């Protein structure tokens, strides 16, 4: 009886790992396909680069450096692996960039529109700026109420090798490894991927 139970437990554990592995492969493929839709057929090099970026980064662990300074009631516990929340949305932005402020306004609206979806995960918006007072003035003027974290030394990008803009929007799992790459703001198909990934337990 015990031997049968042990064998069943081993099989169930193996099947669970296999399901997770299969899901990671599916996410990788779908991420590539939907990111590629942003480019025309003439951009073969760009498509190849996107494929390489996704393949090289899905499953990679992200570190949160000590240079991060949480504000807006963002707590440092959100950076850890022992967090009870099983997923994190991490968005990096240049606080001195006007276009980036406009993107943050879109994120603000997108999260409000999908409140039930984003209530279940941690949200971390990392900002690097030469003038944080001016950044705060701009976001207050735009009515943006996102959970911001300041990176005074820009170490988040350097330590994690995230220079490629495509990598400035990530979904992480509880172990801070990358599940999904890319922004859903301008891509309906990517929004559907986000919904599927964030609803997974």
Present the secondary structure layout.
Elements: H1 2-36, H2 44-57, E1 68-70, E2 87-94, H3 98-113, H4 115-118, E3 122-128, H5 132-142, E4 148-151, H6 155-160, E5 169-173, E6 178-181, H7 188-199
Parallel strand pairs: 2-3, 3-4
Antiparallel strand pairs: 1-4, 2-5, 5-6
Most strands sheet: 6 strands, mixed
How many helix segments?
A: 7
**Radius of gyration using CA atoms only:** 19 Å
Coarse structural class: alpha/beta
Distance between termini?
32 Å
- Which consecutive residue ranges, at least 5 long each, have pLDDT under 50? 1-22, 32-45
The H-and-E topology, N to C, reads as: HHEEHHEHEHEEH
The tally of beta strands, per DSSP, is: 6
Neighbour order of strands in the largest sheet: 1-4-3-2-5-6
What coarse outline follows from CA principal-axis ratios? globular
SS strand fraction: 15-25%
The average pLDDT is: 78
> Into which percent range does the helicity of residues fall?
40-55%
Please, could you describe this protein's structure?
Strand 3, helix 5 (132-142) and strand 4 form a beta-alpha-beta unit. A 6-stranded mixed β-sheet has the order 1-4-3-2-5-6. It is of the alpha/beta class and 201 residues long. Mean pLDDT is 78; it is low at 1-22 and 32-45. Helix 1 packs antiparallel against helix 2 (44-57) and helix 1 runs antiparallel to helix 7. It contains 7 helices and 6 strands; from the N terminus they run ααββααβαβαββα.
């Amino acid at each position: 009886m015990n031997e049968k139970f042990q064998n069943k437990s081993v099989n169930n554990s193996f099947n669970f790992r296999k399901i997770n592995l299969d899901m990671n492969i599916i996410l990788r493929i779908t991420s590539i396909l939907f990111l590629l839709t942003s480019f025309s057929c003439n951009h073969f090099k760009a498509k190849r680069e996107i494929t390489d970026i996704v393949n090289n980064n899905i499953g990679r662990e992200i570190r949160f450096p000590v240079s991060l300074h949480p504000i807006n009631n963002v707590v440092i516990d959100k950076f850890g692996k022992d967090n009870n929340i099983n997923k994190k949305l991490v968005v990096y932005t240049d606080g001195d960039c006007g276009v980036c402020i406009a993107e943050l306004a879109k994120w603000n609206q997108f999260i409000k529109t999908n409140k039930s979806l984003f209530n279940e995960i941690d949200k971390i918006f990392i900002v690097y700026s030469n003038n944080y007072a001016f950044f705060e003035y701009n976001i207050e003027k735009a009515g943006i109420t996102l959970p911001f974290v300041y990176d005074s030394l820009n170490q988040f990008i350097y330590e994690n090798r995230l220079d490629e803009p495509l990598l400035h929007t990530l979904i992480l799992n509880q172990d801070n490894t990358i599940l999904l790459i890319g922004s859903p703001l301008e891509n309906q198909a990517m929004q559907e991927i986000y919904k599927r990934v964030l609803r997974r337990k």
